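Page 47, continued from p. 46.
Same chain as before, 187 aa.
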Amino acid sequence: MLARWLSEKAHEVGNRDMMFKATQVAFEESLTREDFRVAKKLVAPSDWPKLRELLLAALTAAPYAYERIEILLDEDLVADAVASIDLQETRFFSPRDPTLGRLAERALADHPDWVIVLACRMADPIMSEGRSSRYETAALWLGIAARAHKACGRSAQWLAHLDGLIEQHRRKHKLRPLLEELRRTAK
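Result:
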């Protein structure tokens, strides 16, 4: 909070060096999207590229940053956002997280294989654990997986996978129609 206050005061009095450093410290302590945006707003346009690189380096190096993906997507750094997610640890992510869905959609063209793995890892537990209240979320993720398969020219593989899911979950009366609808839209 002190660094935020100091950066604003330094901006008011025109102390560029102090504002630059205080803005950097404020972001490095919080790693929030808001502090990133404030930094961009406060510094002179000529100073922004240098500060941006420093802030992004701090963000990337941080072991944990709650808004990391949002910031990277805001800065159109899709590859960095993809790299920041360990697909072996997806249990820490919620399938209902809109940011994760936004990343998957943005990564479709350049990282379809990654999107396929992510989407299936988000959908599979919902279906296998029979969380019927979340079947629509699973279907949304499977729709993303379908688009990723199509993006890399593997629609036939997707249809075979989907047929397997329909067979595996044939007794789940709330899920099966959602899977069959995915099958109809894939044709």
